């Protein structure tokens, strides 16, 4: 048995939260071309810098793209020379202007095809200097190097040497853990109050120096009637890791409302919660709304009064009796 007593709560209600990366703090390295993974240049949890090589791929498509650039570059050079010659002949009155216009159209088309071929190689991972060298007839590349777009840690390495990949296949994820967020699970019973906490300070239980700030609430409620309150970690992010589950305190207005009861005293019937209140005639199932759950306690509100006693033992037997599956209560 437990007697209900009001308790002040100035620090806030406690809820479970998952540590997540802040928006824009994760990048995906994908295969620019179909091919075979030739060599991995980093391992999981390695720190990488922007532009650092991550792996090399061997791709037959790379050779085809380089050959196409060589061909269109040669055609472009010839069409430019032909255009210059036609302009010279037109200025001397030897040919009509139509010949110049035709040569200009051919040169423009060849220049466009060259830019397209250069863009394809740029997307494949070749830098501008190497592309210019290929266009001028230099040696071709046999492999393409995948590079990091930004700094971070290798969080998920999805391929191995010798593995075949298709264009756009996931190769690895790179996370920057310097900016983290919190996905806080709030019971939907708090819908009316949860919108008021935007901008409020969030305290992480058991982590001195770790603080956050409430940002926004998700637009939907999950199947288990949970809202997600999103927060950003403003201090102490180095003490946390993405994916970690922890407890946080959210300061709602009117934070002292409700009753703190043992976890085992609350029973479920469908989507509703009940506690068994002792009366002169026995125990009565009283509906309550769960405001928060932390550890072995819950905070509930409902038709309860200070001084009432609720059952904390043999609750399953009381529920069975209440549902007509056992003796009287």
Describe this structure in a few short sentences.
By secondary structure, this protein is α+β, with helices and mostly antiparallel strands. The protein contains five helices and 21 strands.
Structure notes:
The protein is of the alpha+beta class. Helices cover 24% and strands 36% of the residues. The chain has five helices and 21 strands. The chain has helices at residues 60-91, 97-123, 128-135, 191-194, 315-322; strands at 2-3, 13-21, 26-30, 35-40, 47-48, 53-58, 144-147, 152-157, 164-165, 170-175, 180-187, 201-204, 211-217, 226-235, 245-250, 259-262, 267-269, 272-279, 282-294, 297-302, 309-310. The chain has a six-stranded antiparallel β-barrel. The protein has a five-stranded antiparallel β-sheet with strand order 16-20-19-18-17. A hairpin with a 2-residue loop joins strand 17 (267-269) and strand 18. Helix 1 (60-91) runs antiparallel to helix 2 (97-123). The longest helix is centred in the first third of the chain and has 32 residues, at 60-91. It is elongated. The two termini are 15 Å apart.
